[in-house]
């Protein structure tokens, strides 16, 4: 998605398409084969299965009965489930915005720092990804709980104020931001890395303060990174299960929890399937919306 | 070497005396890396002057430029622009134009938007921005390409757009960091001439960084030759080439025969010297040489041959050891006596028969063509 980047330096401009694709002939499509096979077997087929299931009738005796109905989707249209969808989208959007706000300075530092600093910073950034979301959630419980680390620390400092965010949307947001910050930062970092420092210097030389240079040069040029980071962030955020289950309580329930409960507690697989389909459609809609309004592929003639 | 004629006569180019100081650099020091120090450097550039910083790569010329632009902190010294101290001013408030080696146009903006960038950042009204940008695009001959993206322009056009983007703000000082080094030779010469005309017309105070002596000689009113972070000499192109102040300057600019020699005697403006390779030479020098041991500079194109050689004081018989043909000129490696070697360069012109195609020839060096340099 970094289509505007090769233009920065003509010497670095992408080689002509013909030269790049010379080695790929039509027969080369088989290179995609293994991946397509995995996709079909483990994504397309199960997803189709769920899609079909979502139109079946619930049955307490046999999980479902193959009688076609729209009742599952009609049920989602009732207030409680619409609220749930709305809350899920809101939490996803807010988490994404916070990640972007925190991720930009971080990504800028990573893109411009020395190699030695980068190695350490990248390790610190990526390390949390190696820890399971369950363990991270328990960590947040230990920190945010009524008698948790934070409140104990406040009390020992003589502060009477108590933080009471556990089992709420805010607790889910805090944990999601922590979980998703690397997902936002890494694509942003690589987008900023591709922008020559000289370009920022030119902007400053022409009278732009660092803030103006960011808004008029760095931001538009790193937009592809922001879009891919934001998209990843948002799609992961609206489909989380563990984090809201452990930290959200009743107020922080999200669509993923409802699907889990319908499938494994209520044993209503057709209804769980219809909720799952809604989630899938939301993710697709988010991708479509961002790609439609995001940075367009710049039209350019000649070389590109 | 190029066939490009060196600008004629210094008088055509001379700045009026008593011109106001545009930029003054006083005792500038910058510790660039652990053991690389630039400076202390001091020089002044008059208003409207074209001033070049010339030197090999790593001599500190780009660092100096970046200090003036504000992208490199100054460890000591002062920089004054039109009498105002600027070394602590952040770069975006310095109002100094800067053009880099590569055009560095904003790839997400059209050429016109690139040129308008500085104006709109400075908050000019939209109509004024459009008018000035259009005027500037016309000045650099890009009027028809304003709507294009930078990557749809050729290298030369991109660099002209970058120049326009800086000039449109009418900065009191323009800094050029080897702006043509990314272009091929033909285009470089063409751009050089365009820049020359533009600078002379706008009378824009300009500092030009280059390692290309031809560019510096062709464009500059004054040149500062840098080596290892120090200024070796500041002078007009004629002074730098004809009266180099040091062995480094003599060697760096143009071809040079540098002969280590010892002074035998000096009387009435004539020094008699003997080179380490055993040549006895008479050299005209107004003042008595400062040291016994020095280096004699003989420019290869000033050595006379054939009949012209007989009429000068230093006349020799030379053996031709090697000839290198370069199209518009030829280089000859000559052996004089037992050990002395001299490089001789001859322009190949129509009426001239060049060099006699002989293995032995008469050569002469006018005492006025020898410059004595301290070692």
Structural description of this entry:
The complex is a heterodimer of chains A (304) and B (375). With 304 residues, chain A is mainly α. Helix content of chain A is 66%, strand content 2%. Chain A is built from 13 helices and two strands, in the order H-H-E-E-H-H-H-H-H-H-H-H-H-H-H. In chain A, strands 1-2 form a two-stranded antiparallel ribbon. In chain A, helix 8 (169-193) crosses helix 10 (210-238) and helix 12 packs antiparallel against helix 13 (269-293). In chain A, 32% of the residues are buried. By secondary structure, chain B is of the alpha+beta class. In chain B, 25% of the residues lie in helices and 35% in strands. Chain B has ten helices and 20 strands. In chain B, the strands form four sheets. Chain B has a six-stranded mixed β-sheet, sandwiched between helices. In chain B, helix 4 packs across helix 5 (155-167). The radius of gyration of chain B is 24 Å and the shape is elongated. Mean pLDDT of chain B is 87; it is low at 1-13. The chains are: A mainly alpha (304), B alpha+beta (375). Chains A and B meet through helix 9 and helix 10 of A and strand 6, helix 3 and helix 5 of B.
* Gap from first CA to last CA of chain B: 28 Å
What is the straight-line distance between the termini of chain A? 14 Å
Mean of residue pLDDT of chain A?
Answer: 87
Output the structural class of chain A. Answer: mainly alpha
């Amino acid at each position: 998605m970094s289509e505007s980047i090769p233009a920065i330096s003509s010497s670095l401009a992408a080689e002509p398409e013909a030269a790049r694709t010379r080695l790929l002939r039509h027969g080369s499509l088989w290179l995609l084969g293994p991946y397509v096979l995995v996709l079909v077997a483990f994504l397309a087929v199960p997803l189709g299965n769920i899609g079909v299931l979502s139109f079946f009738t619930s049955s307490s005796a046999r999980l479902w009965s193959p009688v076609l109905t729209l009742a599952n989707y009609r049920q989602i249209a009732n207030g409680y489930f619409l609220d749930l969808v709305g809350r899920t989208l809101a939490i996803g959007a807010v988490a994404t915005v916070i990640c972007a706000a925190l991720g930009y300075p971080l990504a800028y530092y990573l893109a411009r720092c020395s190699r030695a600093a980068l190695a350490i910073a990248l390790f610190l950034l990526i390390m949390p990804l190696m820890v399971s979301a369950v363990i991270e959630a328990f960590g947040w419980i230990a920190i945010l709980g009524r008698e948790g680390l934070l409140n104990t620390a406040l009390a020992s400092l003589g502060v009477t104020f108590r933080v009471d965010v556990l089992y709420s949307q805010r607790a889910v947001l805090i944990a999601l931001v922590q979980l998703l910050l690397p997902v936002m930062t890494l694509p942003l970092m690589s987008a900023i890395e591709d922008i020559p420092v000289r370009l920022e210097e030119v902007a400053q030389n022409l009278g732009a303060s660092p803030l103006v240079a960011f808004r008029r040069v760095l931001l538009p040029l790193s937009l592809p990174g922001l879009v891919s980071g934001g998209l990843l962030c948002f799609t992961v955020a609206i489909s989380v299960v563990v984090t809201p289950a452990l930290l959200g309580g009743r107020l922080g329930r999200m669509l993923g929890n409802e699907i889990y409960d319908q499938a494994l507690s209520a044993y209503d697989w057709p209804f769980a399937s219809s909720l799952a389909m809604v989630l899938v459609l939301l993710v697709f809609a988010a991708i479509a919306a961002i790609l439609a309004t995001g940075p367009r592929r710049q039209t350019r003639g000649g070389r590109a | 070497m190029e066939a490009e004629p060196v600008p004629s006569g210094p008088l055509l180019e001379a700045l009026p005396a008593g011109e106001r100081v545009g930029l003054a650099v006083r005792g500038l020091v910058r510790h660039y890396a652990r053991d690389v120090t630039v400076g202390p450097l001091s020089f002044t550039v008059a208003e409207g002057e074209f001033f070049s910083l010339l030197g090999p790569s790593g001599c500190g010329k780009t660092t100096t430029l970046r200090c003036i632009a504000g992208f490199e902190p100054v460890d000591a010294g002062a920089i004054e622009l039109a009498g105002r101290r600027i070394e602590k001013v952040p770069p975006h408030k310095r109002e100094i134009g800067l053009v880099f080696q590569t055009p560095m146009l904003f790839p997400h903006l059209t050429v016109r938007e690139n040129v308008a960038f500085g104006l709109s950042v400075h908050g000019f009204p939209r109509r004024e921005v459009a008018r000035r940008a259009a005027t500037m695009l016309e000045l650099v001959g890009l009027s028809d390409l304003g709507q294009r993206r930078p990557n749809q322009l050729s290298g030369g056009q991109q660099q002209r757009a970058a120049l326009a983007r800086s000039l449109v703000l009418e900065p009191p000082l323009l800094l050029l960091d080897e702006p043509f080094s990314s272009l091929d030779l033909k285009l470089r010469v063409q751009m050089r001439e365009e820049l020359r005309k533009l600078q002379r017309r706008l009378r824009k105070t300009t500092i030009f960084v280059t390692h290309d002596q031809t560019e510096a000689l062709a464009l500059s009113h004054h040149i500062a030759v840098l080596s290892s972070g120090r200024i070796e000499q500041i002078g007009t192109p004629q002074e730098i080439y004809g009266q180099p102040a040091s062995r480094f300057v003599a060697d760096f600019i143009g071809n040079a025969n540098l002969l280590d020699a010892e002074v035998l005697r000096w009387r009435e403006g004539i020094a008699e010297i003997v080179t380490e390779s055993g040549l006895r030479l008479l050299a005209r020098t107004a003042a008595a040489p400062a040291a016994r041991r020095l280096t004699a500079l003989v420019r290869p194109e000033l050595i006379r041959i054939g009949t012209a050689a007989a009429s000068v004081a230093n006349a020799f018989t030379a053996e031709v050891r090697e000839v290198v043909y370069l199209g518009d000129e030829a280089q000859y490696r000559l052996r004089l006596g037992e050990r002395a070697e001299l490089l001789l360069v001859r322009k190949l012109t129509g009426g001239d028969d060049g060099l006699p195609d002989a293995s032995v020839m008469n050569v002469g060096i006018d005492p006025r063509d020898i410059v004595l340099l301290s070692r």
